[in-house]
Structure formats: C-alpha cells, structure tokens
TrEMBL record:
Domain of life, per lineage: Eukaryota
Protein's name in the database: Peptidase M20 dimerisation domain-containing protein
Family assignment from sequence similarity: Belongs to the peptidase M20 family.
Organism for this UniProt entry: Carya illinoinensis
Record's signal peptide: 1-27
One Gene Ontology MF term: hydrolase activity
Length: 476
C-alpha cells in the first residue's frame, strides 16, 4: 500500500493511537490547521504545489528525482532526503513499523524487564543481517550499520512501558494487566527498526558507522546511564533521539537549541525530635514545628536565591507526622521534587534543599536526614541540546517536512534520561507530532487513554535515518 493510500485507509478505519508527558507551551493548532496537515485529499489530486508537497502526509512515494546514483549523496541534497522518504513510506517499511509497534504495545514490559521486547528487536536485526552487541544494561542492544569505522553517530530508542492500566479499547490493547506503553516508547522502537531497515538498504552510501541504541528503563532506573557504563557511546561523537508528542499534529517536528528539558530530582527528609504530651510541649522536641519552618524556608530558595531568568522549581509534596491529636510525634517525614535547566542550578538546588532542612531542624532543636535517592537512580540531569546538533536536526526536518512544519518549541519541566548521553557527547533531542483529533490521539503521555497516530511511524524512521546518514555524509 503506498503512503497516501495508507493514510486514507487509516483515516477511514479510524485507527487509533499516542504521546508525551511534557506539554508544549505553544498553542495547540485548531482543528482547521490540523486538517491542513493531515487532509488526504491533497494526496489524491494532481501534483501538489511545492508548499503542499513539503507536507509529509502528502509527499509522493515515487522514487527521488533526480535519481540518486551509485556515487551516493556526495553532497547532500533534497533528492537524498526524498530517497530516504521514499523508502520510509514504501509498503514494506510501513507494514514493518506498524506491526512491530502493535506487537510491543500489546506486550508491554517495565524497566529492566524488556526481555521479550529486546528479543523481538534482535530477531528483526538478525533478519536484516545487522550486527549488534547484547546485552547492555540487562536488556539493551547496541547495533551498528556502515563501514565499521569513524565517524560514529548514534540514534536511540527507549523500550520500557509504564505501570498503568490501559483504558483504550482497541485490537492491540495491552495484554498485561496494569502495564501499558503510555509514553510512546513502543513507537520509538518501531521507528528505530524502520530506520535500521532504511540504513541497511543504503549502507553502501554511509561514510562511517551508525550506532543504533535500544535502551531499557527510561521511565525509571536511569537506563541510559547504565547503557553508557556498558559501552553504548564507545567511539560515538554525536547522538540523537526522538519522542512523540500529542501537542503537535502528525507531521510536525519540533526541537530547540540549548536547554530543552529540566533536570529532575526527588528528596525525602526525616526530621527527628522527641515525643511528648501536646498539653506540655516543653517536655518534647517538636518536629512538626521544625518541619513546617523547613517547608516555608524551602520556598525561599527559588524566590530569593535563583536568577529569575533561570527557571527552577522546588515543590514539597508530602508531609507526614503523628496520628494522635494529643501527642507531639517523634518524627516528621516530608518530601518533594526539584527541577532546573542547567547542571549548575540543579546541583545547587540539591545542596540548598539539604542545608535548609538540616539547619531549620536545628533551629528547633531537631535533627534531620535528607535522602535524594541517588542509589535508586531517580536523579535526571537537564537535557541540553548542542547548538550544532540541534541545527543538524532542524536542517533534516525542514528537508523532510518543510519549513512550516518545523517548530522551535519552548523548554519544558518534564525530564528524560537522554540527558545522560547529552552530558557525554554532543546531542539533540526532538519531538515528532502525533496529534490527530479524528483518531483521538489528543491525550498526554502517561494517561491511560494515551493513543498515537501510527502515521508518525514512517516519518520517525525517515527522520532517524536521514539524521544519521546525513551526519556521516557531512562529517565523514
Ligand atoms: Zn514517559
Ligand atoms: Zn517517554
């Protein structure tokens, strides 16, 4: 089935699908604007205008013109991007990525338990005769395509699902009670396998090596950090990754230079005093009062110490003391989260949260212990896009979807463990829209109603493949 026909059939059959938990702050396009992106009629008439032709969903699947010769894309041109798009939107790739996404969606696995997902990926890699190393970080895979020599560029997908009960009724609904791919990682894996297929077909054009990383445990457990520890970034000089987003219509690609996603950490403090009768408070050491003072003082860190131009958050979300109305308790346990967009601000917040709680406790003769769960890997540094890598994504996206379908997005307070890669090598993270009002793919990531528009899959595959091949072309 060619791409326009596929799109029409998807729209007619009202196939479902998914998104991301970081809301874009940009206005959501109206339904009319959406139709301009997904209206299939422009695919069925005479050759569309160049403005429309730029629209992904209307792009012809005929071979690139002028044809790419065996000398490859010595100098990258729009024809090279169109050749990749032609492969991505061909019936074989479309069917492959859709089937893989549906299989993984129906069989979700949580962090570090992605054994069947990983096996499915390795089976596909075997079928395509693509070499790989396994396991990294328990279930992760490092595959490679190309010359085997430098430069090495990496593209990454996350594999884990969430502990959520799917509320969407459809043919490929999760078969596992209480587990669901509600963030689109099933789509990310399918896109990366689609890219692998395209890149394998074009392997003789590659001027270096593409490394494909399938990683576990993005949602919990810092899978990226463990992948790096197991050699995922060996020789790699740049890395890219995509996330689906319900805030933009299918066919839109978005990113930004610099800070894109916040660093995220959690804290839990135990403030200890001395239990005693509430009617005689002078015989006790009151941790309720100490903890209350600490909560108030924590609010002063961002409002009085942080540069107002540097967005930061400290939120106390939990406060638990005694349960006897006539007794002052021994201890109070409080906790919360903190966010910042630079490593300096992020680790400064961590330090000050600890100091404020410990010092405020001591003012009221209490002691305090503060835990940041570093051992449980709940700290995610900020995700910062390298300016040059962002520019590379922007160039590729504009070639694929046209300038009007690329958006510079605002930074968001959500977090991503891709940040660990971005701390090691130049990196860029970008979004691809999945919003389609007709299909109902309007729900935020981590919602039990999360749905994606599967038309995004070949576009994601094309974006990955073009980013990687063009990077090698321009740096090899
Ligand atoms: Zn998520
Ligand atoms: Zn996610």
């Amino acid at each position: 089935m060619d791409f326009p026909r596929l799109l029409v059939s998807l729209l007619i059959s009202n196939v479902f699908f998914s998104v991301l938990f970081f809301p874009f702050a940009e206005p959501i396009p109206s339904a009319d604007e959406d139709r301009s992106i997904i209206n299939p009629s422009c695919c069925l008439g005479p050759k569309p205008s160049s403005a429309v032709r730029k629209n992904w969903t209307c792009r012809s699947v005929t071979p690139a013109s002028p044809p790419i010769t065996d000398s490859g894309c010595a100098v990258w041109s729009e024809a090279c991007s169109e050749a990749v798009l032609g492969l991505a939107s061909g019936p074989e790739t479309v069917e492959l990525v859709r089937n893989i996404r549906r299989k993984i969606h129906a069989n979700p696995e949580l962090a570090f338990e992605e054994f069947e997902t990983s096996k499915l990926i390795r089976d596909e890699l075997d079928r395509m005769e693509i070499s790989y190393k396994y396991p990294l970080a328990t279930t992760g895979i490092r595959a490679w395509i190309g010359t085997g020599g430098p430069p090495f560029v990496a593209i990454r997908a996350d594999m884990d699902a969430l502990p959520i009960q799917e509320a969407v009724e459809w043919e490929h609904k999760s078969k596992v009670a209480g587990k669901m791919h509600a963030c689109g990682h099933d789509a990310h894996v399918a896109m990366l396998i689609g890219a692998a297929k395209i890149l394998k077909t074009r392997e003789h054009f590659l001027k270096g090596t593409v490394v494909l990383l399938f990683q576990p445990a993005e949602e919990a457990g810092n899978g990226a950090k463990r992948m790096i520890g197991d050699g995922a970034l060996e020789n790699v000089e740049a890395i890219f990754a995509v996330h689906v987003s319900h805030m933009h219509p299918t066919g839109i690609i978005g990113s930004r230079p610099g800070a894109l996603l916040a660093g995220c950490g959690f804290f839990r403090a135990v403030i200890s005093g001395q239990r005693g009768r509430a009617g005689n408070p002078h015989h006790s050491v009151d941790p309720i009062l100490a903890a209350s003072a600490a909560v108030i003082s924590l609010q002063g860190i961002v409002s009085r110490e942080a540069n107002p131009m540097d967005s930061q958050v400290v939120s106390v979300t939990s406060f638990n003391g005694g349960d006897n109305l006539d007794m002052i308790p021994d201890t109070v346990v409080l906790g919360g989260t903190f966010r910042a967009f630079s490593n300096t601000s992020f680790y400064s917040l961590l330090q000050r949260i600890k100091e404020v709680i410990v010092e405020q406790a001591s003012v009221f003769r209490c002691s305090a212990m503060v835990d940041f769960f570093e051992k449980e890997s709940t700290i995610y540094p900020p995700t910062v896009n390298d300016e040059k890598m962002y520019e590379h994504v922007r160039k590729v996206a504009i070639d694929l979807v046209g300038p009007t379908n690329f958006r510079v997005v605002p930074p968001m307070m959500g977090a991503e463990d891709f940040s660990f890669y971005s701390q090691v090598v130049p990196a860029a993270f970008f979004y691809v829209g999945i919003r389609n009002e007709t299909l109902g793919s309007i729900h935020t990531g981590h919602s039990p109603y999360f749905i994606i528009d599967e038309d995004v899959l070949p576009l994601g595959a094309a974006a990955h493949a073009t980013i990687a091949e063009r990077y090698l072309n321009e740096h090899g």
